[in-house]
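Researcher: Good morning. I'm working through a list of sequences from a screen, and I'd like to move beyond sequence-only analysis. For each chain I'm collecting a predicted structure so we can compare shapes side by side. This is the next one on the list. No need for commentary yet; just the structure.
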Amino acid sequence: MRSPAGPKSDRRGESGFTLLETVCVIAILATLAAIVIPALPRGTSRARLESYAIEAAALLKADHDAAIRRSTQIVTQVNAASRYIRSGATDRVVNIPSDVDFDALLAARCDKYPARSTIHFFASGMSCGGVIALTRLGFGYQIRVNWLTGGVEIVALNPA
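Model: Good morning. Structure tokens for this chain:
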């Protein structure tokens, strides 16, 4: 006698996923992650910001020392608009990334000539001086060049 529900071949579909389907989904997600993760914007960290300040200060100190050693004037270019600092002694360049705020307060005139976007270091050890500020998200550093001594120092802003 047959049951009223019919033969047992009536399966309601198997619930769950097969191993092959699961592996395919994981492979697709891994491929998407490999494409998307490198494209995510990564901001400059505090440590990297500090390294930019140290690198800029080292460049300025090297130009100061070169001016004294060579007994000549060395001119360092500081271009906040183009986001770089270029050594007048070695042509070495420190490029500052776009997510870092880059400001420079420099002398308008130096040694009877317009200075605007430069710091002049003299054979006597003096300079035109200036302040370069590198900040990001309320934290940053100032690189200060003393006009009288030509000395370079880094000062932390808003230390945490």
